[in-house]
Amino acid sequence: MYCPTCLNDSLQINKSGIINIIINSKKLDNGRFLFNLVDQTEEQVFETFEDKAEDFFKWYSKFQNPSKIQRIQIISSNFNCTSGCPFKANMKKSVLGVLLPEEEVKEVILTLGEKYNLEVELLDDEDNTI
Ligand SMILES: [Zn+2]
């Protein structure tokens, strides 16, 4: 992953931190979750993500005329550069392909879309960062 400061491929996710889920630019109040790779396996982090994603779909399915789900951002600001670059505290990057496998995340979203009767048409977004 590329560091925004030194532009080397030296960015890695911290051992622990917070992940935010933003869908169609909407954020559920409790849509964030903690991860801690010292105590958790990546599968456990993924399971937590699945639970949170389901909470979002439950909530979103109660909207009147919900627009189709097109944009998903699963982001964290808990990264570090192995060269020790300082970052702005508000730097956020996608954890897809870093901590959560992108294809499996998409599958979860599609499955939840069917379960909650919501249309899902994911855009092929740059890298889903904000
Ligand atoms: Zn750097």
- Spatial gap, N to C terminus: 16 Å
* Coarse shape: elongated
Bound molecules: zinc ion
Overall number of domains: 1
Please report the total strand number as a whole number.
Answer: 6
Low-pLDDT stretches: none
The helix/strand class is alpha+beta
Number of helices: 2
Major β-sheet strand ordering: 3-2-4-6
Quaternary organisation of the protein chains: single chain
Mean pLDDT: 90
Task: Characterize the structure shown.
The protein is of the alpha+beta class. It has one domain. It is 25% helix and 25% strand. It is built from 2 helices and 6 strands; from the N terminus they run E-E-E-H-E-E-E-H. The chain has helices spanning 42-60, 102-115, and strands at residues 11-13, 16-23, 26-36, 72-76, 79-81, 93-94. Strand 2 (16-23) and strand 3 form a beta hairpin. Helix 1 (42-60) runs parallel beside helix 2. Bound molecules: zinc ion (ZN). Zinc ion is lined by residues 3, 5-6, 8, 10, 81, 83, 85.
Features of the shown structure:
single chain, binds zinc ion, two-stranded antiparallel sheet, 130 residues, four-stranded antiparallel sheet, alpha+beta
Topology of helices and strands:
Blueprint: E1 11-13, E2 16-23, E3 26-36, H1 42-60, E4 72-76, E5 79-81, E6 93-94, H2 102-115
Antiparallel strand pairs: 1-5, 2-3, 2-4, 4-6
Helix pairs in contact: 1-2
The site of zinc ion (ZN) has 8 residues, from loops.
